[in-house]
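sry for the spam today, last one i promise. struct tokens for design, 300 residues
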């Protein structure tokens, strides 16, 4: 059975100032997400599931409708705030989505096979899709997952801070922990993050980070559902709390319930966290096309 690709595309784009999931960066109007789908198809994925908000569905279907439907199965699911979860009778009022792990959960009925998870607005490079697909086809089990790790210096923005899950692994390349670090940037040549106390703390240039490129067995949905119920109960009075993927991954690792293999990628990550990032990403895709990594137009 071919693995599936779950694309988290319900973000608000507040720092970018618009719907960056569909914004054109390729020479023929392609969005970043299209290059990820192209890489997934040639790596052997069989289905793409988009997680979107209902208010952006029309924009998504207008942008992507029919472009690659003949090459891979496409499905849509919706990250509704009140997506029904057994154990939660009434959700607290909030405006911000519940976070990346909740975005995964709403796809539980669309995915029954091993699957990868990525962000819609990140470019991950060719290598990660092939190594992740190989893992999902041959090594993925209910207690054996993976994450594609990127070198932190390959993932920064020149135009503001970024948030990253900083990963640590053992000698066998298994993840030991992921620590969500906020407002990371390079200052005077050195990378640092902002701690809860308002102080900045150093990171190494070769630290590995999770860019939200994970590989899971579908049994993980049961884990997420159970932990999400606990998370909602604990954060009823915190309308900005988010249920991130590293939260349930850390719990699985620390309890010994599962292991997560780290697949290291040396590819450069590109993303459009800020509007000012867009010209850099456009230039990067121009170069990738010149190097014949992608055709232009992409879906010719």
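last one done:
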């Amino acid at each position: 059975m071919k693995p599936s690709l779950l694309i988290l595309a319900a973000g608000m784009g507040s720092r970018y100032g618009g719907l960056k999931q569909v914004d054109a960066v390729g020479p023929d109007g392609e969005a970043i997400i299209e290059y990820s789908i192209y890489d997934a198809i040639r790596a052997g994925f069989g289905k793409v599931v988009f997680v979107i908000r209902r208010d952006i569905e029309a924009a998504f279907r207008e942008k992507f409708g029919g472009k690659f439907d003949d090459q891979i199965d496409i499905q849509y699911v919706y990250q509704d705030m009140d997506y029904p979860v057994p154990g939660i009778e009434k959700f607290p009022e909030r405006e911000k989505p519940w976070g990346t792990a909740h975005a995964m959960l709403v796809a539980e009925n669309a995915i029954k096979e091993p699957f990868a998870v990525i962000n819609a607005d990140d470019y991950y490079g060719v290598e990660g899709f092939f190594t992740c697909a190989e893992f999902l086809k041959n090594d993925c089990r209910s207690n054996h997952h993976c994450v594609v790790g990127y070198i932190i210096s390959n993932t920064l923005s020149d135009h503001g801070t970024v948030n990253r899950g900083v990963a640590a692994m053992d000698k066998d390349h298994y993840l030991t922990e992921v620590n969500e670090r906020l407002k990371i940037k390079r200052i005077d040549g050195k990378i640092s993050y902002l701690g809860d106390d308002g102080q900045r703390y150093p990171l190494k240039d070769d630290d590995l980070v999770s860019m939200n490129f994970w590989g899971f067995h579908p049994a993980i949905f049961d884990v997420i559902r159970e932990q999400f119920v606990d998370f909602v109960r604990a954060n009823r009075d915190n309308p900005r709390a988010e249920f991130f993927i590293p939260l349930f991954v850390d719990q699985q690792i620390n309890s010994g319930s599962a292991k997560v293999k780290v697949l290291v990628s040396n590819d450069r990550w590109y993303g459009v966290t800020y509007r000012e990032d867009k010209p850099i990403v456009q230039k990067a895709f121009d170069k990738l096309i010149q190097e014949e990594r992608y055709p232009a137009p992409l879906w010719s």
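The chain has a mean pLDDT of 91. ok im logging off now
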